[in-house]
Specification:
The structure holds two protein chains of two kinds. By secondary structure, chain A is mainly α. Helix content of chain A is 63%, strand content 0%. Chain A has a domain of 65 residues. Chain A is elongated. Chain B has a six-stranded mixed sheet with strand order 7-11-10-9-6-8. Chain B has a five-stranded antiparallel sheet with strand order 1-2-3-4-5. The longest helix of chain B has 12 residues. The chains are: A mainly alpha, B alpha+beta. Chain A: Required for efficient assembly and nuclear export of the 60S ribosomal subunit.
Chain lengths: 185, 185
């Protein structure tokens, strides 16, 4: 009785060859060669399956020459190539000083322009005020003039009435009493 | 905690330059007692003005565990603007470009959050334009807060006593009023 060997390999041929005596060695060789060929064929066929993998090469949009869509890419998505990821810190004193100098110059300019504008506005306002004052003065002086002239005329009349009280009664007589008038409309 | 980026530095300096003049450069080059220079650090969107040795030590503390360090200057809003806090007063007051000195009777109304009216102004820096950042001081030169001019110096002279000369932005009364939110996020 042949010793029972535990089944180790799953292939049938393997078990057969181990259990049977070496009488049909040619057959076995044939089988082996066939299996070897098969294996070789299988092995060869494996690299043959490579080319379809090659087709999976990913082309960039540039290579394809696809016209680009006119769309907005969010700022978070945009990644400039060749640039370092993350924030760029300003920690050295020189770069901070340059930023500060820029800011200072900017502010100085702003303040200067503000002051200039304020000064110009002030000048315009002053000129306007002066003009208004001059106009007021003119108006007042004209008024005074007319007042004076009226006063003078009044005084002259008074003087005249004082100096010639007796000579006048006659010319007053021809003056008719005012007619009564009626107006329509 | 990290250093500021380029744009953040520019925004910060632009804001600081509203109140200070050219002497803002002393903030970067200030080496009074020791050779330790001061740096700006950002932590939880708040900007701190810190001694560099202290900033280096603070790197050993995890970001979520670090509440605050150095002098808080203000915070960056989500839109990228910068808001100065009252805690920045000690930094900007010595370098202030324009100042308003408030009479003793105007100190309390200002410290309770009111604007500075003309009747309360004791002294005023000459040639201050409109809408310019100013540091508000008591008559004994104690900085009380900062704000923005409502009128230029020339216009203030013509203003009635109840007219607002300076809009309040921050005052030291906030240390009590905003005690809960000033240092914690």
């Amino acid at each position: 009785m042949a010793p029972i060997k535990p089944k180790t390999s799953s292939s049938k041929g393997g078990t057969k060859s181990s259990s049977k005596p070496s009488g049909n060695s040619a057959l076995k060789n044939k089988k082996r060669t066939a299996s070897a060929v098969g294996k070789a064929v299988q092995k060869k066929s494996a690299p043959k399956s490579g080319p379809p993998k090659k087709k999976k090469r990913i082309y960039t949009e540039k290579e394809l020459g696809v016209p680009t869509l006119n769309m907005i890419t969010p700022s978070g998505v945009q990644k400039p190539k060749g640039k370092k990821k993350g924030k760029v810190f300003v920690d050295d004193q020189e770069s901070m000083m340059t930023i500060l100098a820029m800011v200072n110059a900017d502010k100085e300019g702003q303040i200067e322009s503000k002051m200039m504008k304020a000064r110009q506005m002030e000048e315009i306002r002053e000129a306007r005020r002066k003009e208004a004052e001059a106009r007021q003065y003119d108006k007042r002086s004209k008024l005074e003039e007319t007042k004076d002239s009226l006063r003078k005329r009044h005084r002259r009349k008074e003087d005249a009435s004082i100096t010639e009280p007796d000579a006048d009664p006659q010319p007053e007589k021809p003056r008719r009493p005012s007619k009564k008038r009626v107006s329509f409309g | 905690m990290r250093p500021l980026t380029d744009t953040e530095t520019q925004t910060l300096f632009t804001k600081l330059a509203n109140y200070t003049g050219r002497s803002l450069t002393h903030l970067l080059t200030d080496t009074t007692s020791t050779n330790d220079r001061h740096v700006f650090r950002i932590q939880n969107s708040r900007v701190y003005y810190v001694r560099s040795s202290l900033a280096n030590l603070a790197t050993s503390i995890a970001r979520p565990n670090l509440l605050s360090l150095g002098t808080c200057l203000g915070k960056f809003t989500k839109t990228g603007k910068f808001r100065l806090h009252i805690t920045a007063l000690d930094v900007i007051a010595p370098h202030a470009r324009y100042k308003v000195w408030v009479k003793p009777n105007g100190e309390m109304p200002f410290l309770y959050g009111g604007n500075v009216v003309k009747a309360h102004v004791g002294r005023w820096s000459e040639d201050a334009p409109e809408h310019q950042g100013v540091v508000v001081c008591g008559m004994d030169d104690t900085p009380l807060g900062f704000g923005v001019t409502a009128r230029s110096t020339a216009e203030v002279k013509r203003l009635e006593p109840t007219g607002v000369t300076c809009f309040r932005q921050a005052d030291i009364g906030e240390y009590l009023r905003d005690e809960d939110t000033l240092f914690a996020t």
